[in-house]
Amino acid sequence: MKIALIAHDKKKDLMIEFTKKHRDYFEKHELYATGTTGQLIIDHTQLNVHRFKSGPLGGDQQIGALISEELMDLVLFFRDPLTAQPHEPDVSALIRLCDVYNVPLATNIGTANYLIEYLNAR
Ligand SMILES: O=C(CO)COP(=O)(O)O
């Protein structure tokens, strides 16, 4: 599976914890991430991650492009709903494309945990 991992700044610690917890699952899949999130995951888990640009610099749109090419199977995007993002239109566009192409999307760790537990059990 091709999996996109993205976290806003205040959710990055959660993403690190999450990828550490599910490392055994993630190492069997192809991982993609926005720039800073990807680097942190690599540093803390040594997982292989294809990094795009940082979110505010176009990374969300790069992942959106893969979704529109039907090349992404799952998106785990830990959004920060309490902080204004300068690239909010890009965030909305990415979420919208998940809905256009019916790509499973978790926007918080609660849903992401359920999804990974489900996928692990298959
Ligand atoms: O801003 C982001 C998603 O909208 C995340 O980008 P970074 O992983 O580069 O911080």
TrEMBL record:
GO terms for biological process: methylglyoxal biosynthetic process. One of its GO terms (molecular function) is methylglyoxal synthase activity. One of its GO terms (cellular component) is cytosol. Substrate binds at residues 8, 12, 34-37, 54-55, 87. Keywords: Lyase. Its EC number is 4.2.3.3. The keyword Repeat does not apply. Belongs to the methylglyoxal synthase family. Catalyzes the formation of methylglyoxal from dihydroxyacetone phosphate. InterPro entries: Methylgl_synth, Methylglyoxal_synth_AS, MGS-like_dom, MGS-like_dom_sf. The gene is mgsA. It catalyses: dihydroxyacetone phosphate = methylglyoxal + phosphate. This is Methylglyoxal synthase. The active site is at residue 60. SMART domains: MGS. It holds the Pfam family MGS.
